[in-house]
Batch of 4 targets.
Target 1
Amino acid sequence: MARSSDPTRTRILTAASRLFYAEGIRAVSVDAVAENAGITKKTLYYHFRSKDDLVAAYLAARDQPNLVLFKRWFDEAEGALPDKVAAIFRHLAKAARHPKWRGCGFLRTTAELANLPGHPAIKIGAAHKKKFEAWLQATFAEAGIESAGELARQMLLLLDGSFAVVLLHRDASYMETAGEAARALVQAALPRRMRAAPQRSR
Amino acid sequence: MARSSDPTRTRILTAASRLFYAEGIRAVSVDAVAENAGITKKTLYYHFRSKDDLVAAYLAARDQPNLVLFKRWFDEAEGALPDKVAAIFRHLAKAARHPKWRGCGFLRTTAELANLPGHPAIKIGAAHKKKFEAWLQATFAEAGIESAGELARQMLLLLDGSFAVVLLHRDASYMETAGEAARALVQAALPRRMRAAPQRSR
DNA sequence: CGAGGTATATTCACTGGTCAGTATACATCG
DNA sequence: CGATGTATACTGACCAGTGAATATACCTCG
């Protein structure tokens, strides 16, 4: 059976990831993925039952690395809670300025497959976002924020909103605007005793 | 010359709109649009130079109606500015609960065509969102808000974020969360003298 | 008025190419 | 030997766009 560490499987997944993220799902043929991975299509179909399977695997492979990255940006940021949240947006804005940036793979896949509501890739995308939201909520709750759940949802809305808007306008400054809005909302939600003098950035 | 009121052209555009919104761009063939419009493919190509042209026309046709609708929701809402902004989200949440709702056509098209940065449809989508943002900014400025520009951008982020998140989770309650965040941000931005007692909704 | 022409609008049938997925066979290795 | 993995070559469906012909409406000039 093909293990997840299987080198051929990994090669396929790497190629699929690069192409699906860069071009979109329906724009990329299975032939193109196989060629890019340096194998034949039949070999690809030996490792993945169908293209839909491959798409789901592409997103599944991005789940953990993405979450880990976000958490690291948060953990390594200086300052109080609002600053640490804003740091995520700051790092994202930097990434969004790279010419190969194409928004959030999870959201773009969902948008493209919106006519197939039960598609496994969409479920993986939804689960990914839920995990991120749950982590935020827990972080906020630990900080003594009463409305941790609502605040986490607001952060998610700003985050995913900035993915969409920045992709549309190709203007990463929206991501910084989102970061400032996030900072303000977190600041306002902090319990009074923990609230430092609100420092307007810039 | 084919006028915009041309009945055949309108039929094509109606069919294209329905199909592209429901299924996505690349998932819908030109044949499918033609059949749905009750004409032959060649007739479609008489009225539109290419599929890309048709896609652009589909979005262009949605531009004004969408803006008008949003403005009407705002104008007809009771209450002060924060409530009027929140009303847009409330109406949108209601729309999002309809089974045929598939998010924002502009954003989904942009996401799907993200590998074609100069595509005319993307330009139309970007212009549409800019118009909405400009209208919001003007409205906020008239209300005496100093940071009208930044606030308008924040509203856009929340709005487009809720399109993305609600489409992903198929849970329209995120749109109400976005509305509450929008209300809070507008409330906080109002000049003191105009600020009524902030009323937490619910 | 009316015959002939011209631009508009539409149809059927087709092309060259791509797509997801498969049948069959060959190889490698424990 | 036989399980795992890979390759060549194929299938039937679909796709964007086109060629050639036809119908309709209007306009010009005898």
Target 2
Amino acid sequence: MPAVSDCIEMLDSETKAVETPEDHAEELRLWLRLLTCTTLIEGEVRGRLRQRFDVTLPRFDLMAQLDKAPDGMTLSDVSKRMMVSNGNVTGLVERLVESGHLDRRTSETDRRVQVIRLTKLGRAEFRRMASEHETWIADLFADLTPKDVRELMRLLAKTKASAQKSAARRRP
Amino acid sequence: MPAVSDCIEMLDSETKAVETPEDHAEELRLWLRLLTCTTLIEGEVRGRLRQRFDVTLPRFDLMAQLDKAPDGMTLSDVSKRMMVSNGNVTGLVERLVESGHLDRRTSETDRRVQVIRLTKLGRAEFRRMASEHETWIADLFADLTPKDVRELMRLLAKTKASAQKSAARRRP
DNA sequence: GGGAAACATTTTAGGCTTAAAACAATTCGG
DNA sequence: CCGAATTGTTTTAAGCCTAAAATGTTTCCC
């Protein structure tokens, strides 16, 4: 179907003579589909977390980061890992400390740094939520074969690398 | 590498005797990678829209929906398409009407319904932004071959269908 | 040592987002 | 025709999120 336009494109890129505005409709569609998938799944997970555990997705995500770091993390670490702004983490942590899920203390070696950890309560609650969360994810992806999953992992790794490279090009 | 656990799993599912908590770590990793890709690209697009055009991503997204609907859309339509809540759209539209990009009027046949359209200004600005936006997306996905793109499209379509089915199972 | 640069965090101002309740208009079934 | 459901939108309350500026601390290096 796109044979004709492919030929034209090839001619352009071979001759390097004509500066045709290139067609990137496919990439655009891919991006929209990627976004749709993520939004769909995210919304589903958000709703289930709220209904089952009365917890928000950002809180859950933050606790997930801390569960992987028994010795705690600094706010900057969390901010980088979650790919959200610093200010965002400040508020999120504030509320989780308030509710007794997090412990926050100033580093003894560097008084700029705040180290946060899950409290006993926080860890217990997170583990309970995480195990159920894992089954939700499995169910959401249930129609994918193991091969599909592997292939998606591979292509998304490639996508991530490509996007990071592009981002670095702009912000060296 | 996972040969042993695979065997155990197979035994379980064959004998149907032991109720082992199944391992869904692969799907979980897939979900996290999907989320990372989307967050990465979304952040990049958000930043470029702000820097180049001083516009927010949600505003751009809303205008993109309307650009595809010359006869306008109702707020509900927009809300479904953008997969955001109704109340969200109300505020977004308010600000875009205020800035002269949107026109909003009550339907003549059903006075519950608000129909919104791009104004001339709104359409012109959107087109200008959209053409640049398309080159950003192309650049972000630049390392993917056409075959990669096709394959990703296929797998994400399958993912979307799977997730929708799962969501429908919960909310019949 | 002392200032400049770098770093970690918080604050600020504004916008986005959601779920749920409230309100308004239409449609449906008897 | 009329009350009950349904549908479309707005409001409300709370939380999330960002970019940029401000604050406090450390490091670098002359």
Target 3
Amino acid sequence: MGRCRRQCLEEKYNPKEIEKKWQEHWEKEGLFSVREDHSLPKFYCLEMFPYPSGRIHMGHVRNYVIGDVIARYKKMRGFNVLHPMGWDAFGLPAENAAIKHGVLPAKWTFENIDYMKGQLKKMGLSYDWAREVTTCKPEYYRWNQWFFLKMLERGLAYKKASFVNWCPSCETVLANEQVIDEKCWRCDNTVIQKELEQWFFKITGYAEELLRDADKLGGWPEKVVTMQRNWIGRSEGVEVDFKIVGTDRTVRIFTTRQDTLYGATFMSVAKMHPLVEGLVKDENTRREIASLSEDPEQKEGVFTGHYAENPLTGDHIPIWVANFVLMEYGTGAVMAVPAHDQRDFEFAKKYDLPVKVVIEKWQGARGEGSREGAFEEDGILVDSSQFSGLPSREAREKIADYIEQKELGKRVVNYKLRDWGISRQRYWGTPIPVVYCDSCGIMPVPENELPVILPQDVVFTGKGVSPLLEVKSFVDTKCPRCGKDARRETDTMDTFVDSSWYFIAYCLGGNAKVDLNSAISGQRSAGAIHESPLRYWMPVDQYIGGIEHAVLHLLYSRFFTKVIRDIGLIETDEPFTSLLTQGMVIKDGAKMSKSKGNVVDPDFLINKYGTDTVRVFCMFAAPPERDLEWSDQGVEGAYRFLNRVWGLVYNNKFKIQDSKFKIEEIFSLQPSAISLLRKTHQTIKKVTGSIEKDYHFNTAIAALMELINEISSFNPSGEKDFEVLGLSMRQAIVLLSPFAPHVAEELWRQTGGKEGLLKQPWPSWDEEIAKEEETELVVQINGKVRGRVMIPAGLDDEAVKEKAFSEPKVREHLDGKTLKKVVVVQGRLVNIVI
RNA sequence: GCCGGCGUGGUGGAAUGGCAGACGCGCCGGACUCAAAAUCCGGUGGGCGCAAGCCCGUGUGGGUUCAACUCCCACCGCCGGCACCA
């Protein structure tokens, strides 16, 4: 105490103290706050914001550290970096807590946010907290309502009655994307079908563009793009009308295999197909239809007693109701071609229906596959009137043309993607801004009356219907048009609406400052000088989060971005240029979970080792996209490493200062100093390369460890040596800073750094210095290593060969053999083939 | 069933077609200590050998190549996604 005049370097690395010190310092300096600066290239670095469940878990830690390392690195590379954070604050757990413990969802949520924000702050993450968004606050969710009204205006929001996915446990509806293996994405309970009136967003209106623009997602993992493409599930085909024999009605079918039209031997329609209601009068048959198996494995059907006429052949084919035909896709009716569709084949076998081959694998291969299964591939048409002899692909075009000419049907494109059902029968979400009036019908709440505030005085019974239904002051309202008594919509919005545009809110300055109306007019009047913040920051350059949102949040956000563009707020088509899907944090071979009892508490670790250690371990243990196997000993290793760095600086504290060393002086250095200098430049190159190459921080840290090892074993003797040591050490500190910012900052300042590390430019390397003077030449004989020789760099191939052949061990092996070939790999390897 | 990813020491993981196992963990040995912890130094894929060295080795089997963890084909195992979408 008091030995040094300025604050001096302690012998022992004390992470708690220095982390607190620098976090306070950074906050006081406002180091992480950003604004638009058109003189700098921008970089928008974003991590998926968390649901405030109570505490940060290791998955969050990993996610946010990856983002922070990128943000800090990009800042040092001269980018103006936007790096915000917020809270996906609406959702069921808050409501469940209310039911269980009697805490109001708002209170529960805000307390969690407080605690978790404290945790994030202790991690030294470089967020501009001024831009924080909290989706459960009225100043945020009013814009959800605003978007809803915009969607209504554009015909992109509508209400319809339909069968929807209902989670009995969450007591609410789920969108298709939120049902995984027939189970609820959140609580894992089996989802049932229920008929309800629901609000939908017409995401299918953008299906084509969402699919087409998937090609633009070059910075995304191919896997995620493929999942989205498959989810959208585009297929081209034709719809064809079949007359129902003996009536004046028709059935419309959809097929992508119009080349097999001549092979249709019956027709299958869905249970719910309107035709069934209209045609089947017999009570027994109706009962049979109703009792058809729901089991997808079991193919079952019932003959309706009616026949359809194939418009191409005039054949009369029986109409069956089949349990595997979906009402929601296509027209709910299909022509059955057992020879060329496996499902139809199995069905035909079961009910002894005819199989007619119309596609051959090649000319003359008749009957192929008709016994054991369907031949589903393309081939050559047979028994297909004027189309016989055509290959499938061509026949599809010709038959589609023919159908359109004869007005029997038309070409259509179908998608698996369904509209996004956004109504939720729960309290803790954004109220849907709609009023029901007996005279005027469904009335949107006028924009100037937004937000529709979620009432606070609510009773949570946990039974049956949404608590909002019980709040008279909320439900009872006046019609905005006629002023008569009316009732409010009590469903709230899916919380995925909140997260579909939050990246926009950050650009506009966070919760309090978001004003989309003025953002639109700002955008319209935007000139070169007063460019809108949205135009400046969007799109997100790097997005980081879990792969579990591959077809949920990531698809919804793409949809919203396109709508937002069409509204005129932004100009980009896609929200996220690059996407990094980080792997899970695993312990003892399983994902960390309370039920498995293998969770590691970030608070405990940060308290014990400091956040820098946790950060370094998370970045070192595996590349970001892979799963990370947790290892307590690995954490110790990271801690040891930082201690070594600390000790190294401490032991040389009076020698490591801002070095005046100039690169021209290299010739006056002794070999070991040159070697350290070279290693330093090699490390800068390696670390930079590792970060640039898919953010492989693990190898970047490994390279840094190598450099630290080399510095440790360097024995400086003269002043010049110490200068090299100082330079090398200070470069190492700079390279370490994105990973372990606190300890780096402390050591940097203690060794003469006047300005903070984030203001330092990222170091550059000199190829000439990084290059080895001598390299080890590997000599192989028939591909096996038989010797190693040191050779000077830049030796030509002939000289290298000569060196190789002069090696005694090599000569021994070559003795008496005939040379076949000699391969030289520039400066690295010689392979002698005998 | 279809689509995608992965398979490397005891372990987490490295390797533009060119020395397999960087770096870390663990383990073994040594120094320091009365002792331990911490720290530091050295060793560490397997087999044979006193040694020099030799042989084997990246899930399995084949192929391309002077040379394959890397490219191609087939198979096995694990993980993830989709699955009556006509």
Target 4
Amino acid sequence: MNQSIRDEFEDRASVLKALAHPTRLFIVEELSDGERCVHELTEKIGADMSTVSKHLSVLKSVGIVGTEKRGAEVYYSLRMGCVLDFFDCIEAVIRGGDDSSCPPGRSSCG
Amino acid sequence: MNQSIRDEFEDRASVLKALAHPTRLFIVEELSDGERCVHELTEKIGADMSTVSKHLSVLKSVGIVGTEKRGAEVYYSLRMGCVLDFFDCIEAVIRGGDDSSCPPGRSSCG
DNA sequence: GCAATACTTGGCGAATTTACCAAATGACCA
DNA sequence: TGGTCATTTGGTAAATTCGCCAAGTATTGC
């Protein structure tokens, strides 16, 4: 693996890393229903607002979500809805499906 | 977020965590072309074999890859090919596409 | 201006991850 | 049986992540 290949996979991994946290996945699912401000998300998640804000900034830094400030509130919304497509495959992995239910090669999963 | 909801998202996150490393993404892509033994992967990756072996065990522990021992070699293969579907969306996120190229709601990405 | 609300940022300790080396296991062959 | 190749596991230091608290910025309303 040379450096440019490594960089390429590093970039890809950073997108997955941004998603690879239960709170951030919860946020993504929540935002699939529409925009939410930090305060709303904080209530649903039940953590410190600073913690939620940091999770949001991780998602924003890779471009998965975007923000719009309205008054004192900052509304977050999903910018890359395609990440929702991951969920079905993830469920399949958790259920422990095998090749037959999820063959290699750009197939859909579920 | 109550405990059972948290557990659910924890499980989902663990699948993404397994993928969220450049070396492991490289392995997945490599295996999309067919099975490989640890030795082959180690050469292509250029890290210590023990490091590669540990990455493989992470992927195996969540069920993304499976193994078959033949002689002294252990061949790894992709068990959940659906994870390859993530790549297009990930590329779109990296390219910084916006809503129009990747609208919310179970759409395909690319 | 002041206080309150909404949010972000800095900082710190705790927990997790990562990569290497060394050592152990298992299979194959002379 | 001894040696070698293939792989896994244990251990450890360095780096990263995580969550809370404290403090700072911005907006609203009195």
